[in-house]
Amino acid sequence: MVVVLYTNDFPLASQNFLKLCNIKYYNNCLFHTVHKDFLVQTGDPTATGSGGHSFYKLLCGHQRTFFKDEIDPHIMHDIVAVVAMASAGPNLNASQFYIPTRPHLDYLDGKYTVFGIVRKGLDVLMKINDAYVDAENFPYQNIRIKHTYVLEDPFEDPTQVDELRPQSSPAARYGS
């Protein structure tokens, strides 16, 4: 999938996402939640749905585990394939994100930072949406982000980014 980010409107979420992609944080992450015809969620390296942290934590420590919401009332969950931060509450954004697989999820508007949209690979998104899942919406077969590539990054890399980037992609930790 190719995701286009709204970097000017949502710089915190966009920079966090880009830098996590750049350091291969998302490589081999499971899509741990698939709600058919609702949304798919990933970005948790523990694959539990409750893990993960922001790029800012890697730079600054635990006081920056999360970052604040960036809400724009004009950017909504009105179409399929917007990309939004998944969080457990206000200003608790870290690494997890979701992608709706149906339009008009207006009850999510104003609660989650929508910071991008899938521009290529909607067929892949719909295949993930069609996965067989258990009662907790966890796919029976593992579905992973194989690898991330950053095509364009308007944000300057902090000096520590090379130290954070692994020599190779992280190994899959849960299942195959």
TrEMBL record:
InterPro entries attached to this UniProt entry: CRIP, Cyclophilin-like_dom_sf, Cyclophilin-type_PPIase, Cyclophilin-type_PPIase_dom, Cyclophilin_PPIL4
Stretches that traverse the bilayer: none
Location of the PPIase cyclophilin-type domain: 1-150
Gene3D superfamilies: Cyclophilin-like
EC number: 5.2.1.8
PROSITE patterns: CSA_PPIASE_2
Short name of any one Pfam family annotated for the protein: Pro_isomerase
Main subcellular localisation: nucleus
Entry GO MF terms: peptidyl-prolyl cis-trans isomerase activity; RNA binding
Catalytic activity: [protein]-peptidylproline (omega=180) = [protein]-peptidylproline (omega=0)
Keywords, sorted A to Z: Isomerase, Nucleus, RNA-binding, Rotamase
Domain of life: Eukaryota
Primary role: PPIases accelerate the folding of proteins. It catalyzes the cis-trans isomerization of proline imidic peptide bonds in oligopeptides.
UniProt-recorded name of the protein: Peptidyl-prolyl cis-trans isomerase
